[in-house]
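Annotated sample (chain length 233).
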Amino acid sequence: MRVEILYGELANLLGEHGTQNLLSHTFGESNIVRTAFPKRPEFLDGDIDFVYMGSMTEQSQRLVLNAWHGLNDDFKDAIERDVLFFFTGNALDLVGRTIEYEKGETVEALGLFPFDTYCMRYKRRNEAVYGSFQSIDVMGFRSQFTTHRGTLQEHPFIHLKYGDGTIPDSQVEGIHKNRFFATELLGPFLVLNPLFSKWLFSLVGFDDRLPFEEALIRAYGVRKKDFRDSFSI
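Output written by the structure step:
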């Protein structure tokens, strides 16, 4: 079992150090591959079971896309051979077609999914989001300078009960194709949603208890009740 954390020194904003710690405690530090920027991701050459990437600054997004120039087909191949991915926050933007900035500059992204990102640095979207994946209720928070155009209906991750979708006015949040998962939601998401995390980790053979599992599930239950009471779900 090998888990690759991509560019953890850059992609660690908005609570994502917590996700890195969860992965380390869950799988053991000896099984964590911490790929530093701008090194080529190890999963592209095989022998990686699970790839994680968190949120980053807009400047870091550009650096990452420059480093990944020409790797589009390699990413597609990894998704098709069922490598497990989990991308959070604006790491999702990297797999769309383009990232456009309000001054008119447009950066080519990986082009793996049919959507475009528009970055408005002084217009932040903040909201709580509640939905489900399969039969698992999930919760998170959106805090971003971006909006998206296009469609994700063919590859939905979370079906929403409250909050806005990745494409505004849709009821779909994030992306799910094969074993590729991406969500804009923060929290950090895997810490906030331990039942989903256990399911996700089972895809790569994890069948043990999560670290601090009782506390995580108890906190999840409190948040779930508060959310339903506050928003009449």
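Annotation: The chain has a mean pLDDT of 94.
Annotation: The longest strand covers residues 125-133.
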